[in-house]
Amino acid sequence: MEIPKFDSWTVDEVYKKFGEPVSVRNRRLDDGPLGPEVPSHSVFPVDMVVPADQVEQSRIRISDFGEAFLDHPPKTLHTPMLLLPPETFFHETLGPPADIWTLACTLYEILGERPLFEAFVPNPDDTIAEMISTLGVLPSRWWKQWQKRPDYFLEDGSWNPEFSGIMSPVTRPLNERLWGMGRGRRPEQCKFSTEEMASLERLLVGMLKYEPSERITAGEAVRSDYMTRWGRPAIDNI
């Protein structure tokens, strides 16, 4: 969030809004003298958290593009594991479709206030298993590459009855997770209409294709039925 005209505030205005700086004296663990490279005091960062209902005339500014790339994709990403696309786990080339997958996971989490893929202590194998539980069996090349697959699933894609991991060996397809996100298993219990839920599901299905080349583009997502009829109007009403 960018605070309008923040650069023109006086020091007194900053202190009035966020309080005066709080500092502590620096000391060494052995109580020895500080070197010339160490300041005598440290100042705590300002707490700029503002309740949502008190935000006025603010603007959203996207920053920190340390992970961004154009022509030379990195070999690894620092995206939280549960938001990573499947191609990262099988060491395939990354590209814009990776962002589409992560965006779909983020959209679900924003609307549902819970992650799409869940794991108590996320690791690559549990995350892959969650994808399969939600979206079905992986493409054959990944299915064959996945070394821990026999621990989780039988060859036909069903759960291994002898699975002993920490996660629940239960298949919960995307449609079921969407109704859970809507707070109800029946349409009359859901805070979203049946039509809106179906439109959102179509959008997420397009964004969560296993094959990167089959995922919709950012432009197609913006022009989707869901964004046109529900997403953009909701933004305009803020």
Strand-helix topology:
Layout: H1 11-18, E1 23-25, E2 41-43, H2 86-89, H3 96-112, H4 124-135, H5 140-145, H6 149-152, H7 174-181, H8 194-207, H9 218-222, H10 225-236
Antiparallel strand pairs: 1-2
What would you say this structure looks like, in words?
Strands 1-2 form a two-stranded antiparallel ribbon. Helices cover 38% and strands 3% of the residues. The protein contains ten helices and two strands; from the N terminus they run αββααααααααα. The chain has 238 residues and is mainly α. The two termini are 15 Å apart.
Mean pLDDT: 89
Strand content: under 5%
Characterize the overall form: globular
**Cα-atom Rg, whole angstroms?**
24 Å
Could you give the count of β-strands?
2
Note the main sheet: 2 strands, antiparallel
Structural class: mainly alpha
Roughly what percent helix? 25-40%
The topology string of helices and strands comes to HEEHHHHHHHHH
Task: Give the N-to-C terminal Cα separation.
Answer: 15 Å
Q: Which regions contain 5 or more consecutive residues with pLDDT less than 50? A: none
Number of helical segments?
Answer: 10
Largest sheet strand order? 1-2
